[in-house]
């Protein structure tokens, strides 16, 4: 089989807004046909990164390439399309008129009926945009993005406002196109959505990538337990050397050890160290997300996410 082509490449990308560093040295490569979730909390830098891939803004430093060329050149060639959260719709046009109008701006496009069908909005084609629900408007944006049959599709929280059935149909259609080689990068806050629909999850927090792997790799970070002990002058290095330890956090005299094999950790702590008052709790997916994206209140912590790096 031939080597997959690189659809998106970011190297050493940073973006500053005045004194705010929104993106801090991101290196990322997406291969053609991958469906990748860009997962992170509010303000993580997802939209800023997508804007740079779309050529809407330039990195402060580093380089962005789309299918081997400058983002703006890739857009000009109709290779890239996006579904953003807001804007871009004229309320007085019908759904069909909106697609027809957008179509008139391109040289080579898919037929209107085909994109309406793929986006699941054939039945509301004659409805005015103003009368469409938020989820229906998102589907209309999706239909417009499909017109140029883009090699790369960028989606910023695409299913906002869609009901369960709408989401399912939307993702089914995305997955079908990915099989034909389309690369999809979507930003989301939802771990479940990322896990269910992406081949790969890139977890971002405070402008950096904190984990990058398949859903099951990311979930394996969450599959372990947390061992908490009271331990003055903790020797965290020794703990990190034990097998299966993902993360060690120190908060004053409390030490939290995130580990796959909590029995070994507990045995070691109680027999080889002065740690006491030991407690073991199971860690959920949501907890893993929060601890990896640094949205817990741990101020004095060390993180290690090597387990999820691909
Ligand atoms: N035009 C701007 N001027 C100043 N600061 C900005 C600008 N755009 C983004 N930021 C800041 O950059 C950081 C990253 O924002 P960004 O919108 O990329 O995050 P996000 O991950 O997309 O968040 P959300 O999930 O809320 O959409 C935030 O701290 C934000 O306040």
TrEMBL record:
PROSITE patterns: ABC_TRANSPORTER_1, ABC_TRANSPORTER_2. Residues 8-231 form the ABC transporter domain. Gene3D superfamilies: P-loop containing nucleotide triphosphate hydrolases (3.40.50.300). It comes from the Bacteria. GO terms for molecular function: ATP binding; ATP hydrolysis activity. GO terms for biological process: response to antibiotic. GO terms for cellular component: plasma membrane. It is a peripheral membrane protein. CDD domains: ABC_DR_subfamily_A. It holds the Pfam family ABC_tran. Keywords: Antibiotic resistance, ATP-binding, Nucleotide-binding, Transport. It is found in: Cell membrane. Its main location: membrane. This is ABC transporter ATP-binding protein.
């Amino acid at each position: 089989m031939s080597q997959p082509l690189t659809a998106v490449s970011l190297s050493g990308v940073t973006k500053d807004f005045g004194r705010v560093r929104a993106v801090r040295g991101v290196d990322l490569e997406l291969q053609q046909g991958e469906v990748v979730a860009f997962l992170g909390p509010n303000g993580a830098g997802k939209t800023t990164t997508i804007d740079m891939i779309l050529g809407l803004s330039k990195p402060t430093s580093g380089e962005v390439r789309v299918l081997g060329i400058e983002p703006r050149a890739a857009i000009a060639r109709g290779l890239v399309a996006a579904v953003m959260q807001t804007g871009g719709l004229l309320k007085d046009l019908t759904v069909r008129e909106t697609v027809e109008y957008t179509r008139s701006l391109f040289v080579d496009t898919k037929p209107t009926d085909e994109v309406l069908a793929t986006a699941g909005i054939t039945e509301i084609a004659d409805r005015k945009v103003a009368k469409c629900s938020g989820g229906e408007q998102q589907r209309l944006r999706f239909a417009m993005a499909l017109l140029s049959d883009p090699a790369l599709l960028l989606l910023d929280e695409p299913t906002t406002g869609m009901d369960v059935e709408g989401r399912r149909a939307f993702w089914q259609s995305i997955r079908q196109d990915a099989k034909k080689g389309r690369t999809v990068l979507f930003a989301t806050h939802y771990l479940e959505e990322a896990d269910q629909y992406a081949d790969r999850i890139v977890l971002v927090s405070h402008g950096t990538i904190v984990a990058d792997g398949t859903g099951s790799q990311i979930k394996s970070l969450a599959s372990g337990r947390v061992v908490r002990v009271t331990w003055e002058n903790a020797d965290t290095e020794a703990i990190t050397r034990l097998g299966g330890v993902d993360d060690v956090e120190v908060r004053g005299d409390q030490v939290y050890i995130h580990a796959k094999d909590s029995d070994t950790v507990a045995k070691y702590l109680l027999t080889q160290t002065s740690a006491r008052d030991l407690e073991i709790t199971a860690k959920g997916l949501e907890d893993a997300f929060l601890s990896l994206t640094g949205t817990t209140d741990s101020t004095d912590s060390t993180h290690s996410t090597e387990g999820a790096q691909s």
